[in-house]
Amino acid sequence: MKIRLLLAAALLSAAAVPATAQTAAEWIARARARLGSEAALQGVSSIRYTGTLEEDGAKQRTLDIIFQKPLKQRITLTGAEVTDIIALDEYDAWQKRINPKNPAQWQLTLIDAAQTKRLRAQVWDNLNFFSGIEKMRGSVRLDGDTTVDGVLCVKLVFTYLPNMVLTRYLDKATARLVKTETESGTEIREEGEIFASGVRFPRKVVNRDKGGRATTMVFERVILNEAHAAAEFAVPALREN
What we know:
- The chain is mostly beta strands.
- The chain has one domain (8-232): outer membrane lipoprotein receptor (LolB), chain A (Clam), CATH 2.50.20.10.
- The chain is 14% helix and 46% strand.
- The chain is built from three helices and 15 strands.
- It has helices at residues 24-35, 38-42, 113-128; strands at residues 46-55, 61-68, 72-78, 83-89, 92-99, 102-110, 139-148, 151-161, 164-171, 177-182, 187-191, 194-196, 199-201, 204-208, 214-224.
- The strands form two sheets. Strands 6-5-4-3-2-1-15-14-11-10-9-8-7 form a 13-stranded antiparallel beta sheet, with helices on one face. Strands 12-13 form a two-stranded antiparallel sheet.
- Strand 4 and strand 5 form a beta hairpin.
């Protein structure tokens, strides 16, 4: 799902950014300006996506994703046979599987440290719209020009962790995100638009792995700046009363 360095130059207004950006910071500023004003982007404290998820060969499931600053996440996937909840509470991450036909039947798993670091990077990326990667001890570099689908693009490489690298291709004419590639070779494409409180989001996100298998998220609503209770992200008790 969409995952976004803000250096000092990126704090400039869209009008102050050159029409043809020359540095990674300038390209990030252009990409941010396309998504919304600096005030709108910096004002985002939480994002909630609701919609559906469909995987190749699997039944469609309902999808509810919550990201909340600084580093909280809760993803709920609900299907006929199982409900999966994957959550991050700062440094604690967990997954719970529930039988929707009998909610008393459930299984809780704590997520290991390596995957928790990855979740932290993903949450930061989604909430900060290409910015602040250095605050997560990451880096971004400009990696030249290339053509994607006949569109001349600039290539930006965002390295959050050795095992979490996002290569983004921005249209040189508009700074639109054309596609994203992960370190494992998965290709991420965004389609359509939803506007929420002056910020542009995709309506559909398609993840396709190197084997050609696709996972598609279609969003019906994007809600900004709801306040979600700490309990929604906290590790559940092993016994429920």
